[in-house]
Amino acid sequence: MSQYLYIILMLVGIYGLLSQKNIIKMIISLNILELGLNLFIISTGYISGSNAPIIIFENDTNFVDPLPQAIVLTAIVIGFGVTAVALMLARNIYKKNGTLEIDEIRGEDND
Q1: The whole model's pTM is what?
Q2: Number of domains in the chain
Q3: Terminal CA-to-CA distance of the chain, rounded, Å?
């Protein structure tokens, strides 16, 4: 049931990416999309009542799949790097153009 909430979170991020004209707001929307995707991947690997996949000497074969956790951990690190580069580029765009609005950077008129 919680997967629907994560899908809605991803859709909010996609909507923010498509509708916003401010670069900082687009970066925030990208982070919301990434958060929803990471939570969705983690929730698909969860099995209720299962144990952590740690080596033990009992005959318990009911383990949670560790692969989604490893994938999400890698995705978090990559997302942090992408966010840092995006913020650095936004800072350079602001220094060069004096604005973070895409329409003003392109020189388009909204009249």
Answers
A1: 0.83
A2: 1
A3: 45
